């Protein structure tokens, strides 16, 4: 069987994971949420007060982190050293720190290495910021997703609300997205940028079904 990688990159809260999950389900591929890995690392760094200005401290921390995915129905359930952290990594303390921590060169090298290993001889859909540029530059199908920032903030706010959050305001969500987009696109180490061969998908006015159809059309030739 073929070993096909579908790379999905784009701004924060653009629906990357929703499309990635739908594609994986439809095609029977494995879905890998690379953002969840950076979020889990961030949670570990916050809890352990890791000094980001010290390479030795960062290296040491990375050696004490073991991440695992449990695919239940293509939701991404991630464990950090055996602890289920899927919900906690979506909350504000992690969201507010993840872009700084994921800009660290040592953190990125370790995550990229693990992400490349996870896709070896498997059919996968991976979403993130640098999948089509750095992790899988030779992926045959790449999407670059974008949407109106206000719509993105509203979608993420509703998602938080539906999970019982009532402390974070829509404005805070909007600010956080803007901040992460800025940090992600301007960092030195593999910044968020569209790979030259990535197909742009602006989903501001598209339903989830329309996005899936659009993506499937582009994937079909490679199946
Ligand atoms: O995808 P998600 O929004 O959960 O990612 C959280 C953060 O992790 C991003 O804002 C970005 O800073 C970082 N990230 C990254 N590279 C990836 C995936 C996520 O730097 N491949």
Automatic annotation (TrEMBL):
Signal peptide: none
Subcellular location: Cytoplasm
Gene Ontology process terms (BP): nucleobase-containing small molecule interconversion; pyrimidine nucleotide metabolic process
NCBIfam families xref list: cmk (TIGR00017)
Record key words, sorted: ATP-binding, Cytoplasm, Kinase, Nucleotide-binding, Transferase
GO molecular function, one term: CMP kinase activity
Location (main, coarse): cytoplasm
Full protein name: Cytidylate kinase
Enzyme class: transferase
Catalysed conversion reaction: CMP + ATP = CDP + ADP; dCMP + ATP = dCDP + ADP
Family (UniProt): Belongs to the cytidylate kinase family. Type 1 subfamily.
Recorded GO CC terms: cytosol
Protein origin, superkingdom: Bacteria
EC number: 2.7.4.25
Location of the Cytidylate kinase domain: 6-219
Binding site for ATP: 10-18
């Amino acid at each position: 069987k073929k070993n096909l990688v579908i790379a999905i990159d784009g701004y924060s809260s653009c629906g990357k994971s929703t499309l990635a999950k739908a594609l994986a389900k439809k095609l029977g591929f494995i879905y890998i949420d690379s953002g969840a890995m950076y979020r889990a690392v961030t949670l570990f760094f916050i809890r352990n007060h890791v000094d980001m200005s010290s390479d030795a401290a960062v290296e040491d921390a990375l050696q004490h982190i073991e991440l695992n995915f449990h695919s239940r129905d293509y939701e991404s359930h991630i464990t950090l050293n055996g602890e289920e952290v899927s919900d906690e990594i979506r909350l504000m303390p992690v969201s507010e720190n993840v872009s700084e921590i994921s800009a660290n060169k040592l953190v990125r090298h370790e995550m990229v290495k693990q992400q490349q290993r996870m896709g070896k001889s498997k059919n996968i859909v991976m979403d993130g910021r640098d999948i089509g540029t750095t992790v899988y530059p030779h992926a045959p199908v790449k999407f670059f997703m974008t949407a109106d920032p206000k719509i993105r903030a509203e979608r993420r706010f509703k998602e938080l609300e539906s999970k019982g959050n009532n402390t974070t305001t829509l404005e805070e969500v909007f600010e956080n997205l803007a901040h992460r987009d800025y940090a992600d696109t301007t960092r030195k180490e593999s910044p968020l940028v569209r790979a030259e061969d990535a197909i742009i998908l602006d989903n501001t006015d598209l339903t989830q079904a329309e996005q899936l159809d659009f993506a499937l059309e582009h994937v079909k030739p490679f199946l």
